[in-house]
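Practice problem 4.
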């Protein structure tokens, strides 16, 4: 079995499913509004490498990488990515991914999905490498899903991920990669919420950042976003900074995502009402209470409904 639906996954399964999928499964079990999805478990990646006789080829190239020479590192990690991406996916994995994808939506036979890298490190408690591996938005159709699962596998060997492992003295063979395939939320507003102030470390505050469109505009750091600080008990706003939001990331016509200009009447308009701030705060506190430690949460609003897209342990400045 090479795939698992979120309903079959819990937070303790990160060595099999990576941290992102493990937490999405846990959030689903809490009956939160998590978009439906599934995970291609780590053993599928291992099977892909073994079936295509890639293990020795990768080992030879990996051994020769000079991480002190940027050009050498980029050229050799690119070669490894090409080996993984150009190899044919084993039919037994492909068939299972396609069958699970086609059952993902009850309304649409070929829905738009996001494909994200869910990672961990074997024999350790490391269950994330934020921003290290690739994400693909608005992927549609079985063929495209299969191709982008391979792209996710290949991103284990992105230059930034490879250099991070080298710096942390992590053997590449211990990398867990388990792509998640999740229904896309075509959000009008999206953002992040921290159940601890990531700058001051105050545990009685919730910090929210938001923008129009998809959450890419917030997590990428490419544009200014609205900023709110709310009290954790009352959920009332203590501080707000409404940014001049000139760009947003949205679905492109026919699929994919694109950056566009924000409508003139929304450039200076607050993205969140007090009621929505309170709703985000209540949900964030519920997630923190369940885990027992501060959370970094990605959320989105589509047609008035709040969706939880991801949650992980929050980091505070200086940690």
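Answer key:
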């Amino acid at each position: 079995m090479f795939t698992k639906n979120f309903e079959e996954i819990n937070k303790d399964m990160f060595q099999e499913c990576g941290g992102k999928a493990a937490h999405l499964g846990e959030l689903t079990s809490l009956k939160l509004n998590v978009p439906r999805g599934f995970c291609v478990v780590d053993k599928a990646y291992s099977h892909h490498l073994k079936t295509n006789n890639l293990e020795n080829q990768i080992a030879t190239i990996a051994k020769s990488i000079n991480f002190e020479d940027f050009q050498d590192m980029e050229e050799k990690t690119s070669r490894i990515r090409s080996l993984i991406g150009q190899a044919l996916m084993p039919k037994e994995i492909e068939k299972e991914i396609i069958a699970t994808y086609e059952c993902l939506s009850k309304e649409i036979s070929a829905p738009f999905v996001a494909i994200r890298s869910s990672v961990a490190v074997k024999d350790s408690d490391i269950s994330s490498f934020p921003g290290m591996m690739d994400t693909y938005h608005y992927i549609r159709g079985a063929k495209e899903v299969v191709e982008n699962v391979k792209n996710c596998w290949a991103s284990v060997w992105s230059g930034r991920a490879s250099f991070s492992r080298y710096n942390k003295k992590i053997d590449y063979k211990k990398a867990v990669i388990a792509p998640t395939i999740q229904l896309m939320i075509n959000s009008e507003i999206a953002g992040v919420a921290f159940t601890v102030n990531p700058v001051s470390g105050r545990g009685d505050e919730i910090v929210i950042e938001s923008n129009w469109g998809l959450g890419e505009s917030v997590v990428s750091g490419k544009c200014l976003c609205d900023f709110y600080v709310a009290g954790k008990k009352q959920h009332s706003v203590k501080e707000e900074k409404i940014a001049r939001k000139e760009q947003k990331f949205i679905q492109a016509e026919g699929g994919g995502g694109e950056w566009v200009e924000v409508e003139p009447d929304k450039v200076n308009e607050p993205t969140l009402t007090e009621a929505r701030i309170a709703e985000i705060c209540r949900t964030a506190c519920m997630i923190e209470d369940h885990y027992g430690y501060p959370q970094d949460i990605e959320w989105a609003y589509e047609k008035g409904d709040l969706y939880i897209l991801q949650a992980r342990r929050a980091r505070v400045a200086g940690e």
